[in-house]
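Tutorial, part two.
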Amino acid sequence: MSEASNRSLPLRSGLQDQSRSCELASDLEPTELLSRSGLAGSTMEFGPRKTIYHQGDRADSVYLIHSGTVKLTVVSDEGKEATVALLGRGDLLGEACISGNVSERMSTAQTVTKCRLQRVSRSSMEQVIHNDRQFLDYFLSFVVSRNLKMQDDLLAQLFTSSEKRLARTLLMLAGFSRDHADQAHVQRLSHEELAEIVGTTRSRITFFMNRFRKQGHLDYSGITGELVINHSLISIALGVPACERCPRIDKLTELA
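Running the prediction step on this input gives:
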């Protein structure tokens, strides 16, 4: 194996860029930007594991995530399915319909946890983008950071271990990119669901989840049954020893 192939690739964590997209453009939340622009849209609530839209459906609206986590999956012509993105509060779904060349959904959007979404028609979203510079800044920032994150996810899938990919997925589900808490409670997912998102087998997920628990990175709440994820899991995602001085999530890009 050549020296170049042994060299570690400078992967970004993927936990910072996308979640801070609205901060780069404005101090206002995306929901506030839409409200200020006079677009109420329609608020929709979904339980876990519910489909928002299917691949191939008509692309006629954009969704803004108020709360919860949504995964985007793509099915190939051969029937193989892959998870291509995990999205959370403040992120957009179906934004590709703004392009005049996209008339069908390119992926399937399905809730991972309980979600609350705001649906805005394609024509209304185009109007806001054309008339509101502040929302345009947010929209462009989101699209660019989303593209960067998807590139990071692809590189992680190709070049990092399933253990690190699982840690990365759990941290994103916990929302450590959106706050600086030392601990977060998230809805407990089955190992089959995690295996599908991470791109590995259920048995590998079970093995790593048990290891993370023994190492003190996660636990299960006896009261709510939720998964309790500790900030120390970042040490696994980055492949560095855990310590009290480990950088917060907003420094991951500098370390990666």
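Residues 191 and 206 are 6 Å apart (CA to CA). In part three we will examine how such features are distributed along the chain.
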